[in-house]
Amino acid sequence: MLRFFLGVLAGAVLAFGFVRFDLAPPAWFGLPDRVRGNLVSATIEEDLYDLSRAPEARTRALEVYFANRAGDAARHDAQAGSPFLESLYRQRAMREARDLAAQWDAFDAVLGQPALREALERRHGTKDAEALKRAQLFAAYEERAFLRQWYAAQGRTIDPATLRDMLADTAKDAPR
């Protein structure tokens, strides 16, 4: 039992080290995986490069190819200007914006509690319900590091007055 836990711990430490510090196991560890990946990739190339195949077959072939040749996926994405990475960022930003925007109605329940409302009025220096809700939304936004960084990378300036509209704009294309 002790060996099991030590093995799990060693695996977790090695996995963390490989990912966090961009390390790699010795090349001879990856040889069987590389051979398997190349064999699978060679097998699905007919579906991948046959333009007369149904789009579903080509999509599945691409999924299998990239599952077995992840380095190729990253290299192709970088060569094309990182559209895949940008799409991932956009999807996460839309999801976070949608989740954050959904909190707006919940702030009414918070303001409906006299003790909480009084504390928020003291904290934000206003009694206006709309201003309190905007301040709460902005406080929740400031806890979202990715969304803040994504807006900053796009050169957008966010303040409590514009946040709700910005979230709605970002979330409008979000998949439901």
Structure description:
By secondary structure, this protein is mainly α. The protein folds into two domains: 2-81, no CATH class; 85-171, no CATH class. It has helices at residues 2-20, 27-49, 55-68, 70-79, 83-101, 106-111, 114-124, 129-142, 145-153, 160-171. It is elongated, with a radius of gyration of 24 Å. It starts with a helix and ends in a 5-residue tail after the last helix. The mean pLDDT is 85.
Rg from alpha-carbon coordinates:
24 Å
Categorize the overall geometry: elongated
Please mark out the parts with pLDDT under 50 across 5 or more consecutive residues, or reply none: none
- Per DSSP, the total helix count is 10
N-to-C series of helices and strands: HHHHHHHHHH
Give me a quick take on this structure:
This protein has 176 residues and is an all-alpha fold.
Lay out the secondary structure.
Blueprint: H1 2-20, H2 27-49, H3 55-68, H4 70-79, H5 83-101, H6 106-111, H7 114-124, H8 129-142, H9 145-153, H10 160-171
For this entry, give a set of tags:
single chain; mainly alpha; 2 domains; 10 helices; elongated
